[in-house]
Sequence to fold (410 residues):
Amino acid sequence: MNLKILVQKFGGTSVATPEHRAQVAGKVSEAVSHGYSPVVVVSAIGRSGDPYSTDTFIKLITGIYSDVPRREMDLLMSCGEVISGAVLVSTLQSFGHEAVLLTGGQAGIITNDTFGDARIVRVEPQKIINHLQEGKVVIVTGFQGITDENQITTLGRGGSDTSAAALGVALNAEAIDIYTDVEGIMTADPRIVEDAKILDVVTYNDICHLAHQGAKVIHPRAVEIAMQKNIPIRIKCTFSDAPGTLVTNHQPDIAIGTDNIGDRIITGIAHTPNVTQICINIEDEENRPQAVKKIFKGMALADISVDFISVQLESVLYTVRDEIADKAVNILKNMGFNPKCLPSCAKVSIVGGGIADLPGVMANVGEALAEQNVDTLQSADSHTTIWVLVKKEHMVLAVQALHKKFNLGG
Ligand code: ADP
Ligand code: MG
Fold:
């Protein structure tokens, strides 16, 4: 039987209440009525603070004990998706669909053994295919997999998007539909920018850059996986019939008009709050290269990921996430450095394929921030992105000002 497979992923807010789950079932029914065999990937119910959310489970242990075993932490964290998936089976049954729930392992998602942040090494989709051929809707718990040694693992933040993308590729799906609480990928986070505009089409590359810079509407790893096999991703809203955003390789011909992907200079503005800027003066003039080597080796050995790196002759600047800043500083002090820290900063990023060729982009950035009297603590650029580091209390203002300066609003 030739199956027309569609992966449909539903985030935490989409499965939060019986009414929402009925809307999820509506989207699944719609897919079935169009001749698709749906593979439904679910996240845990709700967000932080909700009774069955992953964060709530984490707090059951970490609020009381330190040094929680990572294997058991993953077992605990994998429960949220099992709960929402099991509930959704009944919802779908009530809509007249025969449905079956598979855990990540049962669905054939095989990972390495990096508990808490495991990577998918392969997908063995035969069990899913068998169920689909029997006419069932297959629900798969997102965010998790299993190692070759049968250990349950989780895939890290945004992991359900990654599960959906990996399944879409392994099953050669027609598309991977990511359903969430917004109507598509927008020019900025709509929680911050009121007139953020929905993008009809974006390239894998553009959304990857936006996602890496903090636009959490989709996880960048999911985009990278789907891109390998050119499976289209669509970002859609569970609660409306809006067409959403299509993510593809396709670059439509450059035409006159501003809605065209080809002539878009800036795709959007993203932000990442809660980072600490670390500044180290290198006093030992004789040994500067060694000092630089020592700093970054020290961070790497402690598994601390560094960002926004700027090495100058007499100083080294970089950022780390606020929650690991103390650890980073202690390491530096133990190595004999005297780091200066600026906590609670935010990285604001202007992303777009047209930046490289356009003169005056940085002048516009400077102007937008000056108009709001926002200090730039650090900046950097590549051919697709300009980053500025600002104080966290200036983040919203900076995002809004840049969005306006580049006329991204609807
Ligand atoms: P889910 O639980 O469905 O995975 P997420 O919270 O991970 O949902 O992602 C959806 C949220 O992403 C939206 O509610 C929105 O606030 C946020 N977001 C950030 N940047 C963007 C953007 N550029 N476009 C759309 N949404 C964005
Ligand atoms: Mg998400």
Remarks:
- The chain is about 30% helix and 25% strand.
- Residues 18-33 form the longest helix (16 residues).
